[in-house]
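Q: Give me a backbone?
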Amino acid sequence: MWSVCRLLPLLLLLLVVGCQPAQQATEYQLQGKTMGTYYVVKFYSELQPDLTALQQELDTELELINDLMSTYRPESELMRFNRQQTTEPVTLTPQTATVIAEAIRIGRQSGGILDVTVGPLVELWGFGARGRITHAPDDAQQEAVRAYVGIDKIVLDGLALRKLEPRVAIDLSTIAKGYGVNRLAEILLAHGYQSFMVDIGGDMRVGAAKPSGLWKIAVEKPVSTERSVQRILALKNMALATSGDYRNYFEEDGVRYSHLIDPRTGEPIQHKTVSSTVLHPDAMTADGYATTLNVLPADEALAFANQHQLAVLLIVKTDQGFEERYSEAFIPFLN
């Protein structure tokens, strides 16, 4: 009888605790500027986080990435490598080597379409740090620059990066934002925040679903006169990157020159694809593929996407307006 009486208060306590409602997760948001654009982080937590400390941790990581990979910081690791007119190997930090390795992988897989050495051609066509041009470069100017452009002109062996042509310069702007998204997502996960959204200038990654359901991510309509929505995707545990040429271009004699350069021709793309959106679990990979598939004409892009099981949405300009085209792997995301 004594043991039963001892158990009764414990059982009552367990019943009371078990009936308490679960603590509601609250949405928190942090934001700032990086890589010449904005970043926004949203996450859900049942406990009050130290937002000041978390913001500082995120900003410190982004500053590190800029110090390593920015082409707008003369003393970044990447710019120091670019200035070295030598074919001797240079030892990189693991972070920069990780991004370059993925760029080389996608570059080789795509037959050189993603080319992080294309920067000198981007500059030549007036879309780089030196600013816009008013006249298209002539054939001789293009050929002179193409002599030191090509993904086949760099070799990465572990952390050792080597130029095969001393004048080669690397620009990671087609893939570094995605790496930044990954790193912020990894920081949130390390703090135990499973439900989150990271957005750096339109490159995004979401974690587990929100308490209210899947994350709703808008794909922008490719028009330069306004910001409107083409399609809304419901996602979880997925990254998204979009590449488009509808805001960064110039015109001369009625010809529209895109900022996206086709490494095969050394000239801006001329086809009708105005944006490509890629879904992939890895934001850096999505970023690289988005540029690749925007450079390729639509038929080639979809063939490549289907060959490699990539979830891709293309928006193509037609005489009637805009047409959506998508890969087989994208079909489950249409509803």
Notes: The first strand starts at residue 26 and ends at 34. The chain has a mean pLDDT of 88. The chain has nine helices and 17 strands.
